[in-house]
Design a protein that fits this description.
With 245 residues, the chain is α/β, with parallel strands linked by helices. It has helices at residues 46-53, 75-80, 98-106, 112-117, 125-133, 149-162, 179-192, 205-209, 229-234, 236-243; strands spanning 6-17, 20-31, 35-39, 60-65, 68-69, 83-85, 167-171, 197-201, 214-219, 222-228. It is globular, with a radius of gyration of 18 Å. The N and C termini lie far apart (42 Å). The model has no long low-confidence stretch (mean pLDDT 89). It binds adenosine-5'-diphosphate (ADP).
Length: 245
Amino acid sequence: AGMSSEYLQIRDLRVQFDGFHAVDGVDLTLMQGDLRFLIGPNGAGKTTIIDAITGLVKSTGSIQKSGVELVGKKVHQIARLGIGRTFQTASVFEELTVLQNLDIAAGAGRSIWTMLRRRPAEIGDDILEVLDTIGLADHRETKAGVLAHGQKQWLEIGMLLVQNASVLLLDEPVAGMSGEEREETGQLLRRIGGERTVVVVEHDMDFMRSFATSVSVLARGKVIAEGSVAQVQANPKVQEVYLGT
Ligand code: ADP
């Protein structure tokens, strides 16, 4: 598969909770290197799509990454195929330092004690590079629990980067962030793009506007519009369910 081939192909994806159709026949196609915003009102099914891609909820239909079917696979199998996600509330090891968090993420499978005893000199270049990318080089010895809200989100993204995730699914990464943190997160998203495919679940239209990228709008479990920010904003269906509110 080349750079422009279909990378993440979702067809007729459905998720039901006790007969309620949270995701109701969704098609999404992403190319390698795409940055796609997924927007829609609360309850539209955005997080459930991420849960379905990562195997956290049972789904039907098809989700293929480079032709490999993910539906029916287990969470750890899907993670091993290079699919990583963040949560609305960052899940980092609060008692461990930034470096230790990254080291553990990078070395899943190695003994935690081996990692905790490692000296800085033994920390791999890949981890140091990620520290720079996520803007936490000056905080490598800081306990994750005392990081600012935005920094925790960046650390969580860093943990996906050291695992070499090629598809990143970010659930409202700028929620609760200050203006300055949003700005820095925007720069981070641009830095981690390139060959990686990034899906960002988002509410904030202002944040999206600074990216020349495509948006999929979800409402009641269905994709109701796709296009640039300007295109979806001008779409009456979108205004009705989302932007007009
Ligand atoms: P969004 O992320 O767009 O706000 P969600 O994907 O979180 O929407 O939720 C879609 C719908 O599915 C909502 O009505 C929500 O209440 C419902 N839902 C989500 N997860 C569950 C669950 N585990 N059990 C039952 N209903 C759920």
